[in-house]
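Usage

Read records sequentially. Each one opens with the input sequence:
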Amino acid sequence: MKVIVNGETREFAEKTTLQEILQKLSLEGKVMAAAVNMNIIKQDSWNNYIIHDGDKLELLDFVGGG
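and closes with the structure output:
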């Protein structure tokens, strides 16, 4: 299936969870917030949240600075 991750089209297997996508992209532990189709997904749901073909993911990391 095709999924758009931070504006870039990626291919993943059907029934892939949000957590599995983070693992495949080596982003585990780096992402602080995730939105699917502009809806925030709580971190405790990532392991069970199934991504679907055509979904748009925004994976965010908060950076400090000034």
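Summary fields computed downstream for this record:
- DSSP finds one helix and five strands in the chain.
- The radius of gyration is 11 Å.
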